[in-house]
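ok so I'm stuck.
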Amino acid sequence: MIKTNIIKKITALSVSCTLSVALLAGCGNSDNSQKDTTAKVSDKKSETATPAPDTSSPVSDVPAKKVYTVKSYNVYNEKNTLDHYYNFDYENNKLKKIEGYDKEGLGITYKAEIDANDNLTSFSSFNAKGAKSDYYKMILFDNGMLKCEHRYSPTDEELYKYDYTYNDNKQIDTKTGYSNGTKESGKSGYTYDQKGNLIQQTNYSVKGNASSYVRYKYHKGRIISEKYSSKEGKIYYIYKYDYNKKGQLISITNYDNKKCKKPVLITKYKYNKKGLKTDEYRYDPKNKLEKHINIKYTSIKVHNDNFWYGDWVLNHISE
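replied:
not stuck anymore, here's the structure
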């Protein structure tokens, strides 16, 4: 699975795996002076099936929450071509729900909760039998930007917390991690060029020493390489990105050596006339096809969802 540490603007979904859960706790350790907007979401400990939207009247003056549902399916049948279908539902020209299914009808259900200002406040996953798997919850600033991200296990054990701060351009400046939600495990700092492109991520130890780097290169506004290295300069991984004349991502090549001569994974993409991803091909180091994913869309509508959580959701349900 190829994952990057920057937000990718790939709006067509690849298919899925697992997610994990978070629970809102106090969010200290943030340098940003903006006020918090804490989501008020009821306890879901006893859920064993995908919850339905709450249509009852709110008890207090707090507006009823919007409940969005996203479904995606496991495709780990390594030798076969599998068809996957996605249905997009909209309300007031905003994406409300994505339902995905395969011919087997099995998979994972994702549920997102959105507040009155259209900000993501929680994200849950449920297995094929309807039991809760993972859970994320977010604390937001008044402007809707993410301040804290909490992740909890299915048994409500806090696994980690991330605190975010931002620069004057509303770009992530630092991201601090806490294991078990309280013990600091490290920090990342982010550097941008004059065009606003992320060019370096510096990872720090708990003692504040730089331990590793991720460096990014761009061409015509598009990322073309991503390099992971130690503080001494040892290369861990390199990802190279290729695009067609339309600017669509057509391949990602993953190398695990300095000279980039031995790819460990090559992923290629195809698109339809509407610009939606229709096929994903994954090849092993010997250029042998390991997996072919075919995606079919049953309902397509042009939309302009520019909220930060759009990419967050796609990155968490995609592979």
